[in-house]
């Protein structure tokens, strides 16, 4: 049962469902550039500081046609969808493409865009994945310096420290507004469906940040935070799903089956908004600090940090949100997730925490099968003895 302002949600949905359409209208309105970035690691503040619109590439709902011959079936749905969007001209609206690497499959999609649109500026940056070695920070700062040069070359705009500071402040404010919604949902004071929360985060990845923050302020202002928490539902944490949003129908089926999603570490979710860029530092160094800090706040299996790991983070998150179980959403053929999942499962099993793995695909959604599995999972949690 949504408590979110319907008119505002409709505006967010329009942008989230059609990022290219939003970007085209924004370019028309402002006369400025729109730059597509690959998900997970690229600091979008750097693009915003040039006056461009940063748009994080999304999986399209369209079935893959042209892209079939460009990337093999064993690439993840996101990579294949991006290849297909490149082949069918859906990415033509973007003036350039940038990526900060985290995965070999993503590399394939970058190469397809380069092959389809050889004249489109396309910068691929390799960020170090070992996060706490002595040489890590200088290397990340070096990558940021190269990114800065590339972004300046592509947009024809010098990124000044003042402009970057302003962009950092705007994105920090936007993340803080989204985290406020997360905290309200976690506390049970406001009911926000998982598909609605995803819509909020997804739209923030594609919209002008100031416009998005104004819409979030409207949403927050219209909330009835005194509404009672629903009863009888099982509190669940959603985990996983990198790079792109799981289908909203999956999230709806989960919540129609007796589960109440109270927290997540999805990329199109808390992972994306977990960490602000430190605003007291020299702004270019601050982007490097953000890259490193984020892995402490929401550890990613594609990065290596000795101090933290995803399983410990997940256990802490479950305690914080008082979740009784975990539903792991895994995109089919997502190697980083597949390789790390046994560690997560082991940690959850050792503590007797119920968990359910759901594999998602670009094509096909066996809704009734999924419903049965989630209902069984929820019922299992309801019947388990209360842990002290
Ligand atoms: S991390 Fe997973 S979802 Fe993202 S590009 Fe790699 S395989 Fe695909």
Structural class: alpha/beta
User: Approximately how much helix is present in the residues?
Assistant: 40-55%
- The total of helices stands at 15
Radius of gyration: 20 Å
The main β sheet shows up as: 4 strands, parallel
Q: Approximately how much beta-strand content do the residues carry?
A: 5-15%
- Which segments are poorly predicted (pLDDT under 50) over 5 or more consecutive residues? none
The strand order across the widest sheet is 2-1-3-4
Task: Name some characteristics of this structure.
388 residues; alpha/beta; four-stranded parallel β-sheet; 8 strands; 11% strand; binds iron/sulfur cluster
Give a structural overview.
Helix content is about 50%, strand content about 10%. With about 400 residues, it is an alpha/beta fold. It has a four-stranded parallel beta sheet, with helices on both faces. Helix 1 packs across helix 8 (about 195-205). It binds iron/sulfur cluster (SF4). The site of iron/sulfur cluster (SF4) has 13 residues, from helix 4, helix 5 and helix 14.
